[in-house]
Design goal:
With 153 residues, the protein is α+β, with helices and mostly antiparallel strands. Strand 6 and strand 7 form a beta hairpin. The longest helix has 12 residues. It has 5 helices and 9 strands; from the N terminus they run E-E-E-H-H-E-H-E-H-E-E-E-E-H.
Length: 153
């Protein structure tokens, strides 16, 4: 098994597209904390609940000085249809589509055998380093209260 990124490690820079086709570049977010919330695949119930939870908690997350981003290996058109179906207004969901799961792979969070990422939350500090990471069982919805507690520090 590949080891997930170690805490304190600088994340590789990446540019991924959100559901609207806009670029999101990790290095451009330096100076701010970022929550990368990995979900395996769009259109699945637990992934839906995970992203809707972030959307519903967006104000609380933002008040903690953190930018939340959801991401998976799905394509931009898939992300767009999915986010529209859920009524996401503020949460940006990113497509780690090509190379397939490349960003998740670079973080040790890709399940090669299944072809998708782990379900995980990764907090990136203002310097672009991994500050907190929790990998969940695939069928386990992340505890948003726990995540918010970590974000509030």
């Amino acid at each position: 098994m590949i080891q997930p990124i170690a805490l304190g490690t600088l994340l590789p820079d990446v540019t991924l597209k959100d559901q609207d086709g806009n670029d999101v570049t990790l290095s451009a977010l330096r100076g701010k904390k970022v929550l990368l919330s990995f979900h395996p695949l769009a259109w699945t119930p637990i992934c839906r609940d995970q992203m809707q939870g972030l959307e519903n908690a967006f104000d609380a997350i933002e008040a903690s000085g953190v930018i939340p981003l959801g991401l998976s290996v799905d394509s931009v058109p898939c992300k767009k249809a999915w986010s529209d179906s859920m009524g996401l207004k503020r949460l940006r969901v990113l497509a780690d589509f090509w190379p397939h799961g490349g960003f998740a792979q670079s973080l040790g969070l890709f399940r090669e055998r299944q072809g998708f990422s782990e379900r995980a939350n990764l907090l990136v500090d203002q310097e672009g380093k991994a500050a907190w990471l929790k990998v969940y069982e695939i069928k386990t919805l992340p505890d948003l209260d726990e995540v918010l507690s970590v974000l509030r520090g």
